[in-house]
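Structure first, sequence second, as always.
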């Protein structure tokens, strides 16, 4: 009999972390590697946020806090949701967690029973299905078509809902595609959800502020107020504020659900890092001028990558509305063979050959539930992106 839990056998390690680790190992061994797999900004945390953390340390704010966050940060979340999203919450409806991932995990652990289904559009963030499995639920994947810019259509959502569906996980702008839903596109989905009152909505808004070309972000409870009582609106400071390592996420929703999430957190990690909470308070309440500056850089990088990838033989790359990813299709390359003899029969074979033959690390599409494609994070320097895309162009041209 195995010593390890049977639950653990249901999940797999994160492919994005595995690829980033492999790229790091190759680079440490002296190989010329460009990693485009990590999903974090290359910008430093803004100075005023770092200063708030230093001030908190100097003020001795280094003790335990309430299990799910300090009152000041909960109020700042309420203020942010009212200011940016037109949503009204009280601090009792807010949970602060150790990153956005813990918020999602706590909610799933607090609500899922055996047999419960969680509807997840694909391409999806790699952790969604495995968190559902860890919580005892069943992930149900609803593929979004490339020709629809990787956005789920209302009829596809309708067809995927069953009497067992407990949650619908929604993410816009998306990791891994960068696709963002307009108000009308999201309203079409919420109209479907209104017809299924047993389905709750988990909205992962982590990339809210990373929106380009005038794209206007919106979130489900904002678009359809009738869904407010069965929506958990989730967000955090990791991406827009360049605070990935600070590990602060938050969610707002019904008091009963937030209380259940608090119970789980109180018996697992307890409070998020106290210093990071005071830094997050400054992130939400302080100057946001740097976001527009960073987005201008991201927009330039996105355009560069999209143009160079679309110049590759056999690759089609949509131009996304937000985040810092592109998700090009390699349907035109399947069946070809690389210069070193690798048959490109899957997107994983493509990514493996690309890394070994050119030193460019990307994440294969199967990790995100929709093939054949791959994900590039363009949250790195222009020089690295040009070099990497030039290598990808040469690799594609060499396939026979």
């Amino acid at each position: 009999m195995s010593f390890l839990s049977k639950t653990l056998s249901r999940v797999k390690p994160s492919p994005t972390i595995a690829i980033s680790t492999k790229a790091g190992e190759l680079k440490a061994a002296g190989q010329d590697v460009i990693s485009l797999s990590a999903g974090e900004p290359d910008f430093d945390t803004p100075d005023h946020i770092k200063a708030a953390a230093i001030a908190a340390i100097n003020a001795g704010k280094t003790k335990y806090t309430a299990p799910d966050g300090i009152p000041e940060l909960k109020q700042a979340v309420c203020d942010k949701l009212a200011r940016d999203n037109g949503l009204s919450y009280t601090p009792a409806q807010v949970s602060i967690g150790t990153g956005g991932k813990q918020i999602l995990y706590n909610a799933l652990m607090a609500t899922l029973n055996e047999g419960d289904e969680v509807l997840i559009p694909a391409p999806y963030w790699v952790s969604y299905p495995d968190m559902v499995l860890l919580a005892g639920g069943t992930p149900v994947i609803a593929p979004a078509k490339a020709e629809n810019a990787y956005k789920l259509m209302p009829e596809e959502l309708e067809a995927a809902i069953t009497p067992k569906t407990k949650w619908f996980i929604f993410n816009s702008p998306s990791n891994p595609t960068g696709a963002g839903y307009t108000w009308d596109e999201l309203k079409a989905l919420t109209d479907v959800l209104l017809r299924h009152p047993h389905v709750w909505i988990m909205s992962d808004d982590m990339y809210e502020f990373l929106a380009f070309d005038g794209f206007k972000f919106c979130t489900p409870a904002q678009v359809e107020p009738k869904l407010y009582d069965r929506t958990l609106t989730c967000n955090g400071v990791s991406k827009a504020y360049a605070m990935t390592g600070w590990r602060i996420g938050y969610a707002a929703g019904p008091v009963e659900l937030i209380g259940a999430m608090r119970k789980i957190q109180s018996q697992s990690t307890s409070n998020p890092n106290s210093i990071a909470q005071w830094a997050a308070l400054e992130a939400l309440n302080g100057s946001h001028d740097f976001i527009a500056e960073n987005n201008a850089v991201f927009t330039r990088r996105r355009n560069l990558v999209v143009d160079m990838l679309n110049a590759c033989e056999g690759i089609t790359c949509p131009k996304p509305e937000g985040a810092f990813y592109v998700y090009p299709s390699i349907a035109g390359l399947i069946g070809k063979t690389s210069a070193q003899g690798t048959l490109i029969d899957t997107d994983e074979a493509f990514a493996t050959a690309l890394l070994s033959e050119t030193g460019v690390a990307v994440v294969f599409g199967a990790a995100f539930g929709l093939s054949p494609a791959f994900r590039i994070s363009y949250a790195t320097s222009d020089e690295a992106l040009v070099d990497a895309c030039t290598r990808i162009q040469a690799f594609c041209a060499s396939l026979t």
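Margin note: The two ends are 49 Å apart (CA to CA).
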